Amino acid sequence: MNSFNKKCYEILKKVPKGKITTYKEIAKALKSKAYRAVGNAMNKNPYSFAALGWAGGKNLKSSDLVPCYRVINSNGNVGGFASGTKNKVRILKSEGVEIVNNKINLKKYLFKLKN
DNA sequence: CGGTTGACCAAGT
DNA sequence: GACTTGGCCAACC
């Protein structure tokens, strides 16, 4: 696995349920400005929400999975999602994140990563 | 190895 | 508030 992607995943796995982080924060945690590269990595990430068993009902080990839906834009917008933004929103809501007009209150839900 | 792409960001118009 | 521009970086062709 590429080092960069792996790091992204490792960081993302630290985000607890009910919280979110941003592409920018992840890049910052990597001491880089690769906002876009992070998004790119997520887009190709092998552990989509479908792999979480959400759709299939198959329970896989969460330790091997990446909650890519917990990553949003730095301006609070939900951003994109490979399998549809609607699904992303739905999943987040199910974890207790309030989403209004496709936006999230960063002050309330942003998980601060170690730098 | 250059050029394009993108689930991005910030500042400008 | 919207739309455009320039910049950033890894992956891909």
The arrangement of helices and strands along the chain is: HEHHEHEEH
Determine Rg (CA atoms, Å).
Answer: 13 Å
How many E-type strands? 4
Find the CATH topology: Arc Repressor Mutant, subunit A
The pLDDT mean sits at 86
The N- and C-terminal alpha carbons lie at a distance of 23 Å
The helix count comes to 5
Structural class: mainly alpha
Can you say what the CATH homologous superfamily is?
Winged helix-like DNA-binding domain superfamily/Winged helix DNA-binding domain
Shape: globular
Low-confidence stretches: none
Q: In percent, how much strand structure appears in the residues?
A: 5-15%
Q: How is the biggest beta sheet arranged?
A: 2 strands, parallel
- The CATH architecture can be given as Orthogonal Bundle
CATH class: Mainly Alpha
How are strands sequenced across the largest beta sheet?
1-2
How many domains make up the coordinates?
A: 1
Please characterize this protein's 3D structure:
It is a single chain. This protein has helices spanning 3-13, 23-29, 35-44, 85-94, 106-109, and strands at residues 21-22, 71-72, 99-100, 103-104. The protein is mainly α and 115 residues long. It has a single domain, classed as Arc Repressor Mutant, subunit A (Orthogonal Bundle). A hairpin with a 2-residue loop joins strand 3 (99-100) and strand 4 (103-104). The longest helix has 11 residues, at 3-13. The mean pLDDT is 86. The structure holds a DNA duplex (13 and 13 nucleotides).
